[in-house]
Amino acid sequence: MIEAFIFDMDGVIIDSEPLHFDVDRQVLEYYGYSITQEQLEGYVGMTNPEFWSILRGEYGMSQTVEEIIEYQLGIKIGVLKAAQMQPIEGIRELIAELQSGGIPRAIASSSPRVFIEAVLEKFGLQGEFDFVVSSEEVPRGKPSPDVYLRAAELLGADPSRCVVLEDARHGIAAAKAAGMHCIGFVNPNSGNQDLSRADLIVNDIRDIRLADLAKVEEK
């Protein structure tokens, strides 16, 4: 039996990639640049500092990464608070099933902690996870395994006995690099993501049950 279940957040708990795409385009336009949806899809799962460091170099932006992120997060959290949103269908039921099975739960997200906490508060999920880890709190972000290894460490779980739920190529790579099993969730709003390395791929989170987790562990 698995020892712990670790959730990505964006595109898994909250259907937030459209929000991220829109705000990131808005930020770049504010500074006088433009970017396509297809280009942004390639960065899904990366941390803010990594993402903006790359774009700053590519576009020759004069602003510091810190300045860009401060402006971006102000807009993003405002949009989140005003949005009429609920968790992705099946998330509340999956959390309840894991809880009933006595399986510890954590979030390991590339988003800044302030955004993670804003999402959990909006959905009333603050008490549903044993630990929350942001990729910005570990040495390397996804696709490196650091954030997932840190989550397993906090949970006191063997990484090889952990199952991760991810919607992005970078996230699946991180989970596999950590030696964990991974379920890939096909979220059309997360763009064209290669989920082929996942142990199990689902189109609906409501289809994930404890019996499925045992099957994932066997792979």
Explain what you see.
By secondary structure, this protein is of the alpha/beta class. It folds into 2 domains: 4-15 and 85-218, HAD superfamily/HAD-like (Rossmann fold), CATH 3.40.50.1000; 17-82, Orthogonal Bundle (DNA polymerase, domain 1). It is 45% helix and 12% strand. The protein contains 9 helices and 6 strands. It has helices at 17-30, 37-41, 48-59, 65-82, 91-100, 113-123, 146-155, 169-177, 210-218; strands at residues 4-7, 105-109, 131-134, 162-166, 181-185, 200-202. It has a 6-stranded parallel beta sheet with strand order 3-2-1-4-5-6, with helices on both faces. α8 links the parallel β4 (162-166) and β5. α1 (17-30) packs across α4, α3 packs across α4 and α4 runs parallel beside α6. The longest helix has 18 residues, at 65-82. It is globular. The relative contact order is 0.19. The mean pLDDT is 93.
Key terms for this structure?
alpha/beta, single chain, Rossmann fold, DNA polymerase, domain 1, 219 residues, 2 domains
Q: Please identify, by name, the CATH architecture of the largest domain.
A: 3-Layer(aba) Sandwich
Structural class: alpha/beta
Instruction: Name the strands of the widest sheet in spatial order.
Output: 3-2-1-4-5-6
Order of helices and strands: EHHHHHEHEHEHEEH
Could you give the count of β-strands? 6
Weakly predicted, low-confidence segments: none
CATH topology of the largest domain: Rossmann fold
Average pLDDT figure: 93
How much of the residues is beta strand, in percent? 5-15%
In whole angstroms, how far apart are the ends?
A: 13 Å
What is the general shape?
globular
User: Measured on Cα atoms, how large is the radius of gyration?
Assistant: 17 Å
